[in-house]
Amino acid sequence: MSNTSTVRVNAGVPYDVTVGSGLLSGCGSRLSRVISPCRMAVISDSNVAPLYLKTAAESLEAAGFEVCSHVFPAGEQSKNLTTLSGILEFLAEEHLTRRDCVAALGGGVTGDMAGFAAGCYLRGIRFVQLPTTLLAAVDSSVGGKTAVDLRAGKNLAGLFLQPSAVICDTDCLKTLSPEIFSDGLAEAIKTGMLFDRDLFWQFDNARQNSGIGELISRCVRWKARIVEEDEFENGPRKLLNLGHTPAHAIEKCSDYTVSHGHAVAAGMAIMARASEKLGFCQKPVAEEVEKILVSNGLPTGTDFSASELAAAALADKKRSGSEITVVIPVEIGKCELKKIPVTGLEELFRAGLEG
Hints:
It is a single chain. The protein has 355 residues and is an alpha/beta fold. It has helices at 27-32, 49-62, 81-93, 108-120, 134-140, 178-195, 197-201, 212-229, 244-253, 260-277, 285-295, 306-313, 345-354, and strands at residues 5-9, 15-20, 39-45, 66-72, 101-106, 126-131, 145-150, 153-160, 166-169, 319-320, 323-331, 334-341. It has a four-stranded parallel β-sheet with strand order 4-3-5-6, sandwiched between helices. The protein has a three-stranded mixed β-sheet with strand order 1-2-9, with helices on one face. Helix 3 packs across helix 4, helix 5 (134-140) packs parallel to helix 6 and helix 6 runs parallel beside helix 10. The radius of gyration is 20 Å and the shape is globular.
């Protein structure tokens, strides 16, 4: 497959992210080069399983893996301790051992749930990622962050567990709705905002010139560099949270009816406008961000008030005592971390909402 590319992630336990067309039907053979055939528990959701579970299972079985599967209801509303408990009970009922493996087949929620379950079952067994959404491909399947939502807020319970391999079949993206596809575009645009001005401007509809596999690989290479430098998010990796403080607040305020990618898009626009208004960056950064988001079908704001968002963000895991770390755009392709008092969140959000 000449259109296949591989990105090496040199984390504490290195692994490869393989991107290309038609990879799912050969995932068993590829995984058998990394993991000796064993029991493989494939975790998926009710949207993805009817489309891809049979293909993945047949490939794994052909390569010598003994496959069992668990499917949970699709949606962010399932990213909770009840669903996690169901997965853990399933792994125990299937008698998986420490030599066995969990496979996450799906988007970001599935990757989080399967990875978290693998990380705490028997104090940790191996897992692999088979992302089927653009958001999972460009971001959440790489780097080892897993989490579930609590009533108090998003991603408040979790752990780090790097996958043993990531295999991204770009053909799976063909079945995504435009809305779900654009969720992934938001995270890819975020990568350009953070590190790569040329990548950012590729999302201008007049300038798009790269295939989806190339786009995914480019985003993964940037994320790999950050993960290699700061695997457990003690420093530079916090930059990847650009837009996420308001985004997580938007998700929580909406009872998770606003998708993560759409919330991140709104969050980036809010932070860009706030950064301009408070003097951290110069015009026309906010205008450029808004233009790219709108041209890709993404929102640039929210109907929730600054006070509502600030109250929701008080439970954000990026908070440390009376301070919270936010990511401030300086220019396209460059952002900085800034600690602010939690009492300043409402003012920050208000500046970003008003522009």
